[in-house]
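Weekly sync notes, structure subgroup
Attendees: PM, AL, DS (notes)

Item 1: joint prediction request from the bench team. They want all four components modeled as one assembly rather than separately. Inputs as received:
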Amino acid sequence: MSDKRKSTRRRRGSEQPTLQQVADAAGVSAITVSRALNAPERVNAATRIKVLATVERLGYVPNLVAGSLASARSRFIAVIVPSLANAVFIEVIHGLQETFEREGYQILLGNTDYDIEREYQLIRTFLGWSCSALVTAGLRHSEACRSLLTHWDKPIMEVMELGDALDLNVGLDHHEAGRCMARHLLAQQYRSVVYVGACLDRDYRARMRFEGHREVLHAAGLEAPMIELDQLGSLDAGATGLERVLSRYPSADAIHFANDDLATGALLRAQRLGMTIPGDIAIAGFNGLPLGQHVTPRLTTIRSPRENMGRLAAEEVLKRLDAKRVTRRRHDVGFELLVGGST
Amino acid sequence: MSDKRKSTRRRRGSEQPTLQQVADAAGVSAITVSRALNAPERVNAATRIKVLATVERLGYVPNLVAGSLASARSRFIAVIVPSLANAVFIEVIHGLQETFEREGYQILLGNTDYDIEREYQLIRTFLGWSCSALVTAGLRHSEACRSLLTHWDKPIMEVMELGDALDLNVGLDHHEAGRCMARHLLAQQYRSVVYVGACLDRDYRARMRFEGHREVLHAAGLEAPMIELDQLGSLDAGATGLERVLSRYPSADAIHFANDDLATGALLRAQRLGMTIPGDIAIAGFNGLPLGQHVTPRLTTIRSPRENMGRLAAEEVLKRLDAKRVTRRRHDVGFELLVGGST
DNA sequence: TAAAACTATGTTAGCGCTAACATGGTAGCG
DNA sequence: CGCTACCATGTTAGCGCTAACATAGTTTTA
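Output from the run, pasted for the record:
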């Protein structure tokens, strides 16, 4: 009798108080409660206080799913990275998270494991969540993914690398970074330099750096041998890389590693083998992770502004979401050659 | 005329095809499309093929927000960790992600930065997303959080440490780990052992290890001095820790660090200062990160099964979600003393 | 002082999907 | 052959919230 339900059908009621119940208890309408919570300035101060007190009293937790459906947008930001094992992405994520959370957005994190097909699947799923924006690492996507995204009308931010982006872009020039390090090695008079990377078909940014590196060596009339490992950046892989170089290119005087994990693994292994760095062989990396700066000698590397990249990317996306004018679609965050004692 | 809308009001139509449109195009009802996608075995094979082809043709992407609202559950798992800077949590997350994604669940990641109040806020928000389960690091929560969770009827998994949990629990005994390392150090004849931790009020598991450590030293009639750094686990902080020990406890013969990052930072700094390990001073850590196993000498540490912990936690939660019987609510994943050359 | 503009709140109608129940057809069985 | 059982599909009614429009009261403006 007291139940206003017209039908006898029951749906699983979740026990949780609803907005309507809060409204009834506070003696206002549902929309007023909604406004008190989501747009406080549109509600009279006294009403607002009364409503918020009721919310508190009933322990009301807003159903964000319902809110998102009604408003056709969620405060989710889809973030897609190729790996969690690499500290670089963690730092970018950290920068993104900090900035987005401050504005009340929640990150939906996806990990592709460097698989472009998985990226597509993840993006499909994420679009189903009515995300407010998408941040993804890199400019390369599958055809299906590309066409899915071109029909999507929310901000898309591609980070890490610089180039012809779908929408917004914050990153750095990996070709140029490769060139930069190669030039440094040549300037230091190394003449037999081996590049060591891992899974370069998947970690194609490392391949871009290799291409820049090769360009400079060729221009100087030198060979540009390369060794590709089949295990992604890790200290272990770096140790393996060193050993491969020693056996295949015994006359090598320097190794340019695709990242700091590999380089540091090699450096530590070399020291364990009793070699001196850079006397017996010089070692260079990429990323500028703290690790490389704590070994002796310090690792020569290229520092990319990782947290900054995340922060900047988030800020640009937020600008767009606030419907502010976006002055530049592309931001080059640059990089910095850190010359340590290892070269 | 062709618009079936009864009112002239328009809502922001998202252009995206809806389930109903797919149904119309395929000549079936909406619920059949829903079933073809979510419970294929409940639809005749021929119908299913027809529907899925239509889905493909129209580029239909299911609106997961609407689905979650209607079914009062999302395929989200809330995961809350105290830090992303620590590799340990990354590995746990990786283990969780792998296992949950295979079953079609999406992780909602929250980072508390070791702030118990932020944990409460995050959990509140996540409950608003109708998550299927919650995985959180640690057993300590704010009062408000605790009462929120006891009224929640979905699986709750507390990881990392072992003890009196709200629901499910996968972890290890940090007191015992601290005792274990202290016993090892005593067995190696070190008699002046300093414990070095960082922010022990927030990283209270490190404090638990210290308490175990202190217990063993006191039982042996020894002092158990401790130094607390104000910067969470990093190589830099470890280097600082070493210097503090050298100046405040010049007679110390061993340092027990709260984690491998600190320990390795100290080891590398000691070497840069020309000290020998363990001759001048012994160093021990906790976690068993690869890093510590690549320095020379290898770091003595305690290995926790991190990815495993994530995987096991996810499996237990999945069991519960499948309404399978959960035989044990508490799982001790244990740990392993790794004796390197640093002690 | 009447019209315009603004403020505070309410009413109505969905957002796109799925749970629950309903229906009609086919098979299985004694 | 009449019964139950089951299979495939459909109908109906919401899930809990917010956009859009509506309304009444108050202030500003010409």
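Discussion: Chain B has three domains: 19-62, 72-172+307-333, 174-303.
Action: AL to compare against the crosslinking data before next sync.
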